[in-house]
Amino acid sequence: MRQLFTSFFLLWSVLSFCQQGTSFIHVDQFGYLPNARKLAVMSDPQVGFNAANSYTPSAVIELRNAADDMVVASYEISEWNNLQTHEASGDRGWWVDFSSYTTPGSYYLFDLDNQIASAEFEIGDHVYNELLKTAGRAFFYNRCGAAKLEEFAGAWSDLASFENPGQDTECRYIYDPNNPELARDLSGGWFDAGDYNKYVTFLWACMNDLLMAYRESTIAFGDDWNIPESGNGIPDILDEIKWELDWLMKMNNPDGTCIIKMGSQNYNENTLSPPSANTDPRFYGPTCTSASIASASVLSQAAVVFGQYASFTGYANQLHAQAVANWNYGVEMASQGMLETDCDDGSIVAGDADWSIEQQEQVLVQTAVYLYEFSYQDDYASYFIDTYQSLPAYTWIDSYSMAFSDAMLNMKNLNYSASLTNDLNAALSTMVQNDFENFMGEETTDLYGAHMPDYSYHWGSNSPKASYGNLNWSVAQLLGEAGAQEHQSKAADFLHYFHGVNPLDLVMLSNMYSFGAEHCVNEIYHTWFYNGTDYDNAILDALGPAPGFVTGGPNQWYSGTFSPPANQPIMKSYLDYNDGFPEVSWEITEPAIYYQAAYLRLLAHFVVYDPGNSVEEVNHLEANLYPNPAQRESYFESVENGQMIVLNTKGQVIQQLAKNQSRLLIRLDEPGLYVLHFLADNGLSLTRKLIIE
Known about the structure:
The chain has about 700 residues and is α+β, with helices and mostly antiparallel strands. Helix content is about 30%, strand content about 15%.
């Protein structure tokens, strides 16, 4: 009965052009982990497109079993901020905390007096698992140059795209397009956002979040996303990352220079749906210092991640070598005052891919951390120590500088020296304690529980929204047990925002009805899923957009005329539409790989993989090194035999030793830090630091 009502209500809300804001009781429409905090929001709109709607909830809200509508618990409501209007949303409201209920199942909240129900939701250990796969598969749909067969893509199948003459396999240089000798194979990679272009600098934040998602939440990722590589023994997130890395390597040159972007030369070219329908030529732009530095950052961290797998040892070394070339080039150009900030002149249309000098300098410092982590060469650590304090302190713990914040925390955890670790720990802890923007931990300044500064509700606001959640999770690891619970719960609040705990009552992902959402994004601005195609609207059209794309989010500086998004409280500056010029829906609903990655990283914190397919073991080679620190002599003990390479911090090989017994003696006369690389006969490898006093 309730499901029939819900289906009718959804259809009515879309047809009435007011799909958002359809419910007064806001819950995570996918659900909650059993022992997590569960806080629903009840809203009474005061300002904005839904201000004419009025709601005063019952003093007690029921929790009902969705299978039989039986009441399983009841909870008293509490006023938020003495029923003052929350300026950012235009709503006043109440909270109901049902955290104490932990029994797995399907439920909804019900206001008996008003006969109003929330969306259904699950309580269980794996409520987000299928959601993680679906959000991850958005990258598969964004693959360029890959056939999307029906067995993997379902209704959104398509032939390989941009493989026609003059396109990506023989891409021409934009400033000399008639010169065939300059043609390059730049096939592969992902479409960046709503268009089909591909950018090096734009993928930087995306790849950092994806790589960090895997590093932070390895247990969340399996080998079963139903992409072509599924079942190969490698987590599918790494297969997707490798698809982009392979393209990035093609954009590079051996001398460390890197092409900044590739795409179309006119806005009216390559605008057809589906992607394989496009035949207009494609072009690549100039090499730019920002592209080299972005590439260095991505490849250096990717080398660390892929180096954990025996089957990717050679690949990781290739990534690292190119990262070193990129980084050396960037450092040299920076030392000469030659960093470029106006390299992308727009000859390839759409986004300006240039970076400021400050950002380029920041990413050089960040990259040094991962170059050191991979090689343990002292030069990279020294560069970090010599330069990190010259960067603005606000970037150390900042959602707009997540990659640098991640690097700072990573360098602290690498324990290069006690003094550096202590300095970083003190500096980062102070930044967290100051929290001048009130987005850390248990703050109550936002009715919907996921506060971020007003200025963050801009074009692509869902990107910082996810990053504030990720930052809280990172801070939880920094503070340890003392602050972990508080900040992890706050990270979950940001996740719940994406799943419907927002003034729009909207799941911020496309076409998620088959995955448990009752009110979700129906339209996104994407050339494939454009207005008027079969992929236009998830309810009204034959197919709608592919599921799982994160939309741009509310934008208080929307420049079109539709209201909403115009003339609304900032959190209601949104509309579920994909119209083109002059209504510029790309400012509101355009997806992008960097929004997607930030959300996927946030989601992964709350997923524990339920094994279906096995994945290759990460390099877990059991070994002991003792004593360490040592006086001249140390022993390396392992059941595996192989070759031991001893390097100094400049990367010079000091010794090469064969290990053919259970214990290997390592004798070094000079005091200092050494790096031991052990290559086992079974293909596994291990790196350890050894201090000789």
